[in-house]
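Reopening this one. Same input as before:
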Amino acid sequence: MMGKVFSDLFTGPDGKTVAIGRLYSAPVLVSGLVTPFIMLWKGQQIDLTALGVMYGGLGAAVMALVSGTNATEPKADS
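Same output, byte for byte:
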């Protein structure tokens, strides 16, 4: 079951080739989501305005990676 979930997350519409945009966006997304928790763990203050800008930029970067490489991936068989 988990293998199917990860396979669907990181493969293209054909289910066989690796979707490079999705693969490259995974570390970007994980590092962005973990950053505030690390800051809290180290006792640093979090600026919510900067955090909101970071999440907006993070979303834009992930969308650019996924949609930008979508045209290069093989299409699913109908």
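So the earlier flakiness isn't reproducible anymore. For the record, The radius of gyration is 16 Å.
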